[in-house]
Design goal:
eight-stranded mixed sheet, alpha/beta, 6 helices, 253 residues
């Protein structure tokens, strides 16, 4: 595997990112949208594993406006007080990811993948907040995104006028969503509303709830990690990528 830290010029600054690929040959591109805990070794491990199947995978630091490593070391997330305090410290970072910022950043990331040798439409896979960010990019640039996956994503169907599900008609990507069981950020009622929006828009999709898997189940450096759910996520993502981008992929050497 070839991996490196790269810098991406955006309309508002320079985003650092982790890039991984099997070789220097042209390959299908995957834009990996991190969770709220930032770029770190656990994210790099996920990116490397996806890249090993024959893809150029780019994971930007979505919080680059606040610095190259604005999140810092994770506290003991099993401690309720430390968890609450930690999430309060993240609120200013979330606030920077307004729709206009996500759209402009997304164009820069897609352009970078194209320049790196990822021809044609790319796939996006997003985790936690990354599912919403990935949705925004996919609906803003529908002709540039062939597949969209979201894992333990929250807030995809709310009462807000700008709720993601209201823009389902803008999607052209095939979608897969693996929701967490008993996730207060994406309840059963919200999932049902989300699925109705996808169906009414005629989106090709699969949506599943991972029973017994808490919010954050893919992240190996958190208490929410569940190995069985994490492996299931890899299987489903691999299948989605093969269906939508397999014709672009070169045989692994």
């Amino acid at each position: 595997m070839l991996s490196s830290t790269v810098d991406i010029t955006t309309p508002t600054g320079v985003a650092n990112a982790y890039l991984s690929r099997p070789d220097e040959e042209p390959r299908p591109g995957v834009l990996f949208i991190m969770d709220a805990y930032g770029l770190r070794p656990a994210i790099e491990d996920l990116v490397d594993r996806i890249a090993a199947d024959g893809y150029i995978v780019l994971a930007p630091n979505m919080f680059y406006r606040a610095g190259r490593s604005p999140v810092g070391p994770l506290p003991d997330l099993s401690d309720p007080e430390k968890r609450v305090s930690f999430f309060q410290s993240l609120r200013p970072l979330f606030a920077q990811l307004n729709p206009d910022a996500v759209a402009s950043d997304g164009a820069a990331y897609l352009d970078f993948l194209a320049a790196a040798g990822a021809p044609g439409p790319v796939a996006i896979t997003g985790y936690c907040m990354g599912a919403r960010v990935g949705w925004k990019i996919a609906t803003t640039y529908p002709d540039r995104v062939a597949a969209l996956a979201g894992f333990h994503g929250g807030g995809l169907a709310t009462d807000a006028p700008e709720s993601p599900h209201r823009s389902a008609g803008q999607l052209k990507a095939e979608c897969y969503f693996g929701f967490a069981d008993q996730d207060q950020s994406m309840t059963a009622a919200q999932i049902a509303a989300f699925e109705r929006a996808l169906e009414e828009a005629g989106v090709s999709y699969r949506s599943e709830v991972y029973q017994g898997a808490p919010h954050g189940y893919t992240m190996s450096d958190t208490p929410a990690y569940r190995e069985d759910a994490g492996e299931r996520h890899f299987r489903e993502l691999k299948a989605l990528l093969e269906r939508t981008m397999g014709s672009q992929a070169a045989v692994r050497g």
